[in-house]
Amino acid sequence: MTPSFDTIISGGTVVTASDTFKADIGIRGGRIVAIADTLTGAAEVIDASGRLVMPGGIDSHVHISQPSGEGVVMADDFDSATRSAAFGGNTTVMPFCFQEQGQSLRDALSWYHGLAEGQCHVDVSFHLIVSDPTPQVLGQELPALAEEGYTSFKMFMTYEGLKLTDRQILETMTAAKLSGARAMIHAENDDAINFLRDQAELAGDTAPKFHALTRPIPVEREATHRAISLAEIAGVPLVIVHVSNREAMEEIARARARGLKIYGETCPQYLVLTAEDLDSPQGAKNVCSPPPRDTASQAACWEGIEQGIFNVYSSDHCPFRYDDTAGKKHPMGEKSFRWIPNGIPGVETRLPILFSEGVVKGRISPQRFVALTATNHARLYGLYPRKGTIAIGADADIVLWDPERQITLSQDILHHGSDYTPYEGFEVTGWPVLTMVRGQVVVRDGTLSTSSSGLHIPREKPQA
Ligand code: DUC
Ligand code: ZN
Ligand code: ZN
Known about the structure:
Layout: E1 5-15, E2 20-28, E3 31-36, E4 42-47, E5 52-55, E6 57-62, H1 78-87, E7 90-98, H2 105-116, E8 123-124, E9 127-129, H3 135-147, E10 152-156, H4 166-179, E11 182-186, H5 190-202, H6 209-213, H7 217-234, E12 238-240, H8 246-257, E13 262-266, H9 268-272, H10 295-307, E14 312-313, H11 331-335, H12 350-360, H13 366-380, E15 398-408, E16 427-437, E17 440-444, E18 447-448
Parallel strand pairs: 1-4, 1-5, 6-7, 7-8, 7-9, 9-10, 10-11, 11-12, 12-13, 13-14
Antiparallel strand pairs: 1-2, 2-3, 5-15, 15-16, 16-17, 17-18
Bound molecules: dihydropyrimidine-2,4(1H,3H)-dione and zinc ion (2 copies).
């Protein structure tokens, strides 16, 4: 007799963004087709007793193979980044497709697709980065690409070659509104950073710790306020990515209280690192933007996680090698922190850090963990209900989680292309033991399947 299912996940505790319950899950053709007390009749039965069975992580903020300045090379390609993602319990990642000046979005996309094709171990879905918002890009390309499933893009308020003027931001936000795409923004005041950086360099303050000191909280707070005001003027919802502190959070909360659709994202580095982590001989390892702050800001971000200021928790995985002149030891970085590539690896450690510090320490429920790591990403970016939940008809994107396994985070056990982790020695409780993408086991007990085949997933236009 033909079995009813390709796979049954049996005897686990299923966690969704709303419920926790004991059930078996039946999978056929890559989708969840049954959820019941007991199921039988499968080619393979996976024993999930003692495990949490959750939607695989969706990391909606990762950078892979992104050009990052002269002589700088990102540490991950699509093979290594998605391998690392899979080991970390993720089933979908959303990397950025960066538009160079003068480049069309389509050309940028075809370059990234060329790099990703056949290399991915989990599913991927690209955001765009709009750096050159010409009338052709805003009037023709963005609307056409939104119809084809590229339904989100990021704008930058800082960085040469990426930053947009306020006028350009308004025009780009208007294009988001007309095309139904989701707008995201990196909110830091570029002039203020340049002013403080020039002053620091004049004073000879060039060590990595001055990266954090020249991007203080008001730099982020002011830009967050301005970005929200521009979104209000354009009449468009907006995601404020990588929020690091209370003052930026308060801008989001105030805007929401006025009825604006403003969403917030935070990341592991703002929960467990501080600016002091940049104040050491190897401080370059932790240079990222916005920078990690202090313990008061960590506590504020935890409040934001608990109280719903943050809709999503992403890694902002942006990996460079440390011991490498194409990475954190870029020769110019010796002269000034200005030249140290901005970004840290984190796609593989994102889920364990939040589970351990959040769920195990009693700050959030397992359901909220699922919402923050999977479901809300799917909702925000047009992947729901195909992804981000455990429900009949959804893709069988599932992580089996051992809630008791104790692990010391260390470079030795990770699978990214970087040669370090910012979380070396950090102890976590809770670990992914099996990752399944569309019904196919990609990682089981620390071993990667040889036949993983991640796909690019076009997305729906997101609902507000
Ligand atoms: N912004 C990001 O989103 N990632 C890395 C660096 C940055 O500034
Ligand atoms: Zn950014
Ligand atoms: Zn980023």
